[in-house]
């Protein structure tokens, strides 16, 4: 079949672009030894829902939602603080029976790393951005312990990536 050059070029461009669109995984805005931070395209409530759905898709349950922004706003008045730190900020706490058990069987002292928290927040001076962060785990203990801790960090990273796709 003989197609005109502009049509062929457009079709080729679509075919070449498709794998890139599907393969483009979210990348961290910042990755330090202490934390990993992403910026989401969606608003706070949508991102929170997407994180919760990514947890549920893995059979995980939210233990608690820490209303960090509300707490700072409420207590700031009592402390005489006038600066608004977040427009919205919450920490979603959860655990994984499988990953947590492996981590704590490797070293019972790894209990300090549980529960896991993914933080979602919006800064007052950046209303169009929703940030998603999690704490990196220190690789401590035996080789078995460190491998289990890497699995926890991978779980956190995978949940955030799935939510922000």
Query: What is the CATH C-level name?
Result: Alpha Beta
Intertermini distance:
37 Å
- What is the 3D shape? globular
Low-confidence stretches: 7-23
Strand content: 15-25%
Side by side, the strands of the main sheet go 1-2-6-5-4-3
Given the helix and strand composition, which structural class is it? alpha+beta
- Number of strand elements: 6
Q: Give the averaged pLDDT, no decimals.
A: 89
Give the biggest beta sheet: 6 strands, antiparallel
The CATH homology group name: TT1751-like domain
> And the CATH topology?
TATA-Binding Protein
Q: Write down the Rg.
A: 20 Å
How many distinct folded domains? 1
Write the CATH architecture name: 2-Layer Sandwich
Order of helices and strands: HEEHEHEHEEH
Estimated helix fraction? 40-55%
The number of helical runs is: 5
Question: Can you give a write-up of this model?
Answer:
With 165 residues, the protein is α+β, with helices and mostly antiparallel strands. The chain has one domain: TT1751-like domain (TATA-Binding Protein, 2-Layer Sandwich), CATH 3.30.310.70. 47% of the residues lie in helices and 21% in strands. It has five helices and six strands; from the N terminus they run H-E-E-H-E-H-E-H-E-E-H. A six-stranded antiparallel β-sheet has the order 1-2-6-5-4-3. The longest helix has 22 residues. The protein is globular.
């Amino acid at each position: 079949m003989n197609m005109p050059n502009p049509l062929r070029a457009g079709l080729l461009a679509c075919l070449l672009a498709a794998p890139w669109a599907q393969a483009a995984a979210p990348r961290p805005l910042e990755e330090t030894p202490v934390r990993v931070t992403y910026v989401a395209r969606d608003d706070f409530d949508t991102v929170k829902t997407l994180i919760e759905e990514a947890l549920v898709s893995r059979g995980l349950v939210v233990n608690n939602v820490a209303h960090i922004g509300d707490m700072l706003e409420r207590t700031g008045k009592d402390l005489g603080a006038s600066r608004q730190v977040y427009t919205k900020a919450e920490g979603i706490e959860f655990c994984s029976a499988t990953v947590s058990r492996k981590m704590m069987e490797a070293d019972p002292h790894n209990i300090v790393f549980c529960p896991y928290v993914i933080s979602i927040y919006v800064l007052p001076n950046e209303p169009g951005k929703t940030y998603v962060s999690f704490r990196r785990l220190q690789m401590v203990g035996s080789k078995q312990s460190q491998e289990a801790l890497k699995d926890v960090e991978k779980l956190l990273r995978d949940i955030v990536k799935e939510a922000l796709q």
